[in-house]
Amino acid sequence: MAETAREMGSLPVTNVQALAENFNNNGVDDDLQVPQRYLTKEPSAEEVVAGGDSNCVIPVIDLNRLVDPRSSSSECAKLVSACRHWGFFQLINHGVPDQVIGNLKSDVVKFFNQPLEDKEECAQRPGSLEGYGQAFVVSEDQKLDWADMLYIQVQPSESRDLRFWPTRPSSFRNSIDAYSLEARELGHRLLEFMAKGVGADPASLRAVFQGQAQGMRLNYYPPCRQAADRVLGLSPHSDPGGLTLLLQINDYVHGLQVKKDGKWFAVEAVDGAFIVNVGDALEIMSNGKFTSVEHRAVIHPTKERTSVALFFFPSSDMIVGPLPEFMKGNQVRYRSTSYQDYMKQYFAEKLDGRKHLDRLRLLEL
Ligand code: OGA
Ligand code: NI
What we know:
The structure is a single chain. By secondary structure, the protein is an alpha+beta fold. The protein has one domain: B-lactam Antibiotic, Isopenicillin N Synthase, Chain (Jelly Rolls), CATH 2.60.120.330. The protein is built from eleven helices and 15 strands. It has helices at 2-7, 16-24, 63-67, 72-85, 98-113, 116-119, 172-197, 203-209, 280-285, 339-348, 355-358; strands at 48-49, 60-62, 88-92, 131-133, 148-155, 214-221, 234-237, 243-248, 256-260, 263-266, 274-278, 295-297, 305-312, 319-320, 337-338. An eight-stranded mixed beta sheet has the order 2-3-11-8-13-6-5-4. A five-stranded mixed beta sheet has the order 1-10-9-12-7, with no helix packed on it. It has a two-stranded antiparallel ribbon with strand order 14-15. The longest helix is centred in the middle third of the chain and has 26 residues, at 172-197. It is globular, with a radius of gyration of 20 Å. The structure holds N-oxalylglycine (OGA) and nickel (II) ion (NI). Residues 217, 219, 234, 239, 246, 255-256, 295, 297, 307, 309 line the site of N-oxalylglycine.
């Protein structure tokens, strides 16, 4: 990802937070209309299975139970089942100190509350996806997402490009650093349990991701009073990398939806939990034992929402294919591909479901 994010770019677009402030500060029946480029054809809420029904809660995994020898194997089985059938789980008792998360959350809120010109000190530069702006905008007529993002590479530390790291609030860089170290450790532990859970060498997945790039994306989804059900915060997509750890900043504003059996499920984030999901590279490496699932973010009519996604990537010079540890007598289900080419293709097109991954599939599961 490191190299790829730095070589690719996205067409510049209007800042959505500023656009939304303009709309939301005006009366309901004024003439201001959300620009056509943000409006999707169908109300996005239509097919959603609302929360409340127990089927709609993605599995909750408890790290304490994974670690405790008395409960480890049953919790590991639950983890593997979640990664297979949902591609998503929520992680509780994850051990990341409240203070580390609290500091990050408060700095993220302060960052987005700054005037536009201050945020733009970290603006993307042409030909790079790092910085404050948008990704995946490849043509002047595609539909746009109702969100702004700040993307930075956070690990390994020597790969950081500090031009895109906010200096305000002044504690922000430290909070990101502390958080990314904790998250790295946590991600590696999860990869071990996932490998163990399917009978592979616990070190096998960890070894692929250890020392490799990690990217952090802060997503800011402004409210949209006029047309919340006709805009999307983040178009349906699967994540390209290994694992993603997602932290919701506003605990009570939900917006993430996950696709299962052709339906969208609204994720009700458990307070203090991480939302973890499998990315394309991990589906391929596990030969389909884990699934990279399509997801999207919807918009609230009156409340803003912010999330922090941390992506674990394999080495950019890796050939990504099913790992021998995960095959053990099974047929190969995916073609191998150079990860760099995969990422280039991923960022060269508009987000659109799992199409990149589907191109590499050899056999249906
Ligand atoms: C992402 C993502 C979901 C969210 O950043 O890849 O899926 O709820 N984010 O912000
Ligand atoms: Ni995602």
